[in-house]
C-alpha cells in the first residue's frame, strides 16, 4: 500500500513537472520579478521621458525589491532602442519606455525596420502632453491668424525647428503648413529639443512645435511666447492661447509616453507591469513631477493602451500621407 502511494506521488510530481515545462509562463508570472528589470529609453538622457522613466523606476524598485535599471539606447528616431527591446527575451525583464515615433509613426517613415509595432505588447500609457506652437518673442505675431498673415506676406522667410524628420514637431508643423497654405523653412536638430530650444530663444530660428513639458518654463519666463496649442481645449496656465482646432477642426497633436514589452511576454506579467506602473505614477513624488511638467496622467490597462496607440498610428498615417512624406 505504501509503495503504491509512493508511486502515485511520483506520478503526480512528473505530471506537474511536465505541465510547468509546457507552460513556464505560470511560474514566471508568479515569481515576477525575480531579477533586475531593464527599461530602455530610446532617446538621450535628460529629456522628459528619461526623467519620468527614472522616477517610475525608483518607485518600482521599492515595490519589487529588485533593481530597475534605466538604459538609454539612442539612434534613428528611437528605432535602435525599440529594436533592441523587440528582439529581447519576452519575459518582462526588458521593457521599452516610448514616445510616439517607435510605436506609432516610424513604421510609415522608414522603408526597412528591424522591428514592427506589433512586436510589442503595450502595458500602459503613462502620460500625455499637448504640443504647443512657440516662437521667439521678437516674432511679429502673437497668435495663429497673425502668424499666418506674416508668413503669407513673406513666403519662405520664416523658419521652424524640429527634432528631425518624422518627429512629432516636424509632422505637426508640416500639417499646419498644409492646412494654412504657409511656406516655412525646416531646420532639423538631430540632437533633440535642448539645442533647438536654445536657438529658438536666441533667435536663430523663429518657430517650433514642442510639448508643453519642455517649453513651460521658457514660456513663463518670457523667453518664448506661445502662439497656439494643438489640443482640443485651452490649457491651464495658457488660457489666453487658443487651440488650433478652433480654426482647423480636428487639429490635435500630443506627445505621450508608454511602457511596452516584447509581444510574447506572458499576459499576467504584462498586466502586473501595467498595474504596478500606474500605481507608481500615482505616488506623491511622481504626481508632483507630472504637475510640474504639465503632464496629464493616463491610466490605461493593456487593452486600452494598445487601442490608444493604434488610433494614434492611424491618425499620423493619414497626416503623413496628406503631407506627402515618403519612407526613406
UniProtKB/TrEMBL annotation:
Gene3D superfamilies (alphabetical): Bordetella uptake gene, domain 1, Periplasmic binding protein-like II
Origin: domain of life: Bacteria
Keywords from the UniProt entry: Receptor, Signal
Pfam families found in the cross-reference section: TctC
Magnesium recorded as keyword: no
CDD domains for this protein: PBP2_Bug_TTT
Signal peptide: 1-31
Keyword Signal: yes
Entry similarity comment: Belongs to the UPF0065 (bug) family.
Protein name: Tripartite-type tricarboxylate transporter receptor subunit TctC
Species name: Bradyrhizobium algeriense
Amino acid at each position: 500500500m505504501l509503495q503504491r502511494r509512493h508511486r502515485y506521488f511520483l506520478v503526480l510530481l512528473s505530471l506537474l513537472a511536465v505541465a510547468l515545462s509546457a507552460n513556464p509562463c505560470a511560474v514566471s508570472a508568479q515569481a515576477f520579478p525575480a531579477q533586475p528589470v531593464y527599461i530602455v529609453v530610446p532617446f538621450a538622457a535628460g529629456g522628459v521621458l528619461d526623467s519620468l522613466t527614472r522616477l517610475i523606476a525608483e518607485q518600482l524598485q521599492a515595490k519589487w525589491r529588485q533593481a530597475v535599471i534605466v538604459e538609454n539606447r539612442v539612434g534613428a528616431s528611437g528605432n535602435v532602442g525599440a529594436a533592441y527591446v523587440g528582439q529581447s527575451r519576452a519575459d518582462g525583464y526588458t521593457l521599452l519606455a516610448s514616445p510616439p515615433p517607435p510605436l506609432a509613426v516610424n513604421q510609415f517613415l522608414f522603408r526597412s525596420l528591424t522591428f514592427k509595432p506589433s512586436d510589442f505588447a503595450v502595458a500602459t500609457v503613462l502620460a500625455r502632453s499637448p504640443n504647443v506652437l512657440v516662437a521667439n518673442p521678437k516674432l511679429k505675431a502673437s497668435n495663429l491668424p497673425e502668424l499666418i498673415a506674416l508668413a503669407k506676406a513673406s513666403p519662405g522667410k520664416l523658419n521652424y525647428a524640429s527634432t528631425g524628420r518624422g518627429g512629432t514637431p516636424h509632422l505637426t508643423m508640416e500639417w499646419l503648413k498644409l492646412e494654412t497654405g504657409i511656406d516655412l523653412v525646416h531646420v532639423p536638430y538631430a540632437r533633440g529639443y535642448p539645442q533647438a530650444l536654445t536657438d529658438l530663444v536666441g533667435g536663430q530660428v523663429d518657430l517650433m512645435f514642442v510639448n508643453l513639458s519642455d517649453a513651460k518654463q521658457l514660456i513663463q519666463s518670457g523667453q518664448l511666447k506661445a502662439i497656439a496649442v494643438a489640443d482640443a481645449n485651452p490649457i491651464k496656465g495658457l488660457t489666453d492661447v487658443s487651440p488650433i482646432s478652433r480654426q482647423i477642426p480636428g487639429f490635435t497633436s500630443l506627445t505621450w509616453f508608454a511602457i511596452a514589452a516584447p509581444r510574447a511576454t506572458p499576459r499576467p506579467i504584462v498586466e502586473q507591469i501595467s498595474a504596478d506602473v500606474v500605481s507608481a505614477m500615482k505616488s506623491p513624488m511622481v504626481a508632483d513631477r507630472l504637475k510640474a511638467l504639465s503632464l496629464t496622467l493616463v491610466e490605461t490597462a493593456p487593452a486600452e493602451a494598445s487601442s490608444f496607440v493604434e488610433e494614434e498610428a492611424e491618425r499620423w498615417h493619414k497626416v503623413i500621407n496628406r503631407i506627402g512624406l515618403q519612407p526613406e
